[in-house]
Every structure is written in structure tokens, then in C-alpha cells.
Amino acid sequence: MKRVTIQDIAAKLELSRNTVAKALNGGEVSNATRMTVILKAYEMGYEKLDSKQIEEAKGLSRKNVGGTILVLFNRAESTFWNKILTGISDEINDNGYRMQMYIVEEDDLDATATLKAASEDTKGIILLCKFSVNFIEGLSTANLPITMFSVPKNGEDYLRYGNIIAIEGRNVISKIVQKLINQGKRTFSFVGGGNASMNIAMRYDGMRQTLLENGLIIDEDLMLSDRDSNSYYNFHVIEESIDNLPYLPEVFVCVDDDVAKYVATALMKKDMQTAKDTVILGFDNTLEPDFFKSDIITVEIKMEALGRRLVSTTLDKIMHPEWDNAIITVATYLVDNKEIH
Question: Helix 235-243 and helix 257-270: axis angle, to 10°?
Fold first, then answer.
């Protein structure tokens, strides 16, 4: 009987010989690739696996799944997405599946190209970014469990197609805004597409509701939320928008920390003292420790755990297709900050 070679394994997995060699010999490949290669080598009878690799392969074999979870994306990675992807990858590997990550092209309006690119053994799909209902309808023709992380503001309609994981933002932003009002703050601006998604809309609504409950007038001229949501990830757009405000508010509430950094930098270019005196609220807790404005208020999301939740929700649906789809709202945590004590 012919001995199994690295080339045989590479051909079976449709990977390069170099990638398989690295995976088997401790080279730099992703954990998902390493586990996939080790399992396939074990299944094919490759004789050069060491004892540790054999035990890993046996553990994966016992799970007896051997399927792929397709993870869909439509934008560049950032610190936020990297941490979530770590959780996704780890949970997929821990359960004996493989991860296939696919960047969806803008012209794939009905998911035709995406489904063609999916592995034949795909068992479930995770959508990390917001996609049109037409795209998700197209995905649903594959009759696979779908878990969505980002849906439109009124995205309950998407429950027809799969589970939705949301991030709690209304309550945590409301509490922060209330503390700032108690400290005497009266003028607030929101920066970012307030209705860009269900997650962002919760933050926007949390601010607006709290202002109204306290009898404060919402100055719509201070709401920087009328452009396309992606525009606010351009520093020059932020700078121009702030320059065009009728006056500077006491508080900027930003959709996330990336936008908060742009706001702080734009204020610093106007006047360093203004940048120091203005309260800025972000979200996600991704600020670098050495960023010049160290008092930006932010909110913690346990991102790796969130990634694992996206996978576990998908696996639950694989195991229990009869379960009704649900919206699962994940808790968030205010990061300790002296500005709001």
C-alpha cells in the first residue's frame, strides 16, 4: 500500500504543499489550518504524526463533525473584528469544525457567488457585517443555519432567516448620559450613522431618550448622523463636520472608539484646551493606552466571548433545526472612568 505523503494531504485539502508542511512541522499557519491538516493526515494514515498530534486528531475525530462554518465579511479588519474572529476561530476549532472566511464582493447582490465559493461540507453561516435582505434571502436557499451579528435598525424581519446576536447599547449609554447630565452637561452631539444598524441604533436611542426624559432640548444641528455610516470612518469628514457645527457641544457621543479618536484629534487641531475640556464617549474599548486623550469614556464588549457566542448559536441551530430563531442581546460593561463618577 502506498505511503501517504504531504503532497497527498495537500491535494486532498486543496492546499499548497508548503502550507501542509508548515502545519505538520510547527510552522506559522492559523490554528484552524493546523487542526484541519492534522485531522486529515490522521484520517489518511500519515505515518509521521507525533503522539501529541495523534491525540489532537483523535479528539477531533471523536467529535465526528468534519464540517465547515462559513464566516462572511464585507469590510477591512480592525482591532474590533480581530478579537471577535479569534473567538470564532477558537470555538469552531474546539468543536471540530473548520472555518472558511469569505469576503463578499459588492456586486454579489443575491449571494450567488458566495454560495459557489462555499465549501461543499458547509454546515452553517455566520454574517459579521450588515447585508441586504436580498443577499440573505439568497443565502437562505442553501437551507443552512444562519447567525447574523449586524442587521438594520428594525431588523426583526431578518429573524425569518436566522438568529441575531445584538450588543446591548441603549441601557449602558443611557446610564452614562444620565451621569453626565447630573454633572451639569446640557449639550450633546451624536457622531456616526445613528440608524446604521440595530446595534448602533440602540446607542443613539439611549442618548436621545435620556435627554428627553430630563427635559433637555435635542439640538438636531449637533447630530452628525445624516451621512452614509461609513463616511464617519474618514477623519476629514469628521473634521469638516465638526468645523461646520453652529457651536461645540459639551459632550460628543460616538458610535465607537475609532470615531471617538477622530473627534478627539479634530478637536485637538482646533484647540488643545477644547480637546481636554470636551467629554467624548466611545464604544468597544479598543483605545490604545497611550492615546493623547486618556479620559475618553468607553464601553467594554467581551469580544472573544462574543465570537464564541456567534459560533455556539450556529451550532445549536445545526443540532436543533426545529428551534425558533431568536434575538440574543449580549451584555456590555462601562469601563471605569473618573469623568463620570
Answer: 50
Residue 251 has pLDDT above 70, yes or no: yes
Give the tens place of pLDDT for each residue, 138-189: 999 999 999 999 898 888 889 999 999 999 999 999 999 999 999 999 999 9
> Homologous superfamily of 68-167+303-331 in CATH?
Response regulator (3.40.50.2300)
Q: Burial, 338: exposed, middle or buried (Cβ in 10 Å; 0-12, 13-18, 19+)? A: exposed
Name the pTM for this structure.
0.78
Residue located via cell numbers 462572511: 72
Sign of CA dihedral 212, 214, 219, 225: negative
Fold assignment, 6-63: 434 Repressor (Amino-terminal Domain) (1.10.260)
* Per-residue cell: 176: 452614562
Q: What are phi and psi of 146, to 5 degrees?
A: -120, 135
Cell numbers given for 98 = 473548520
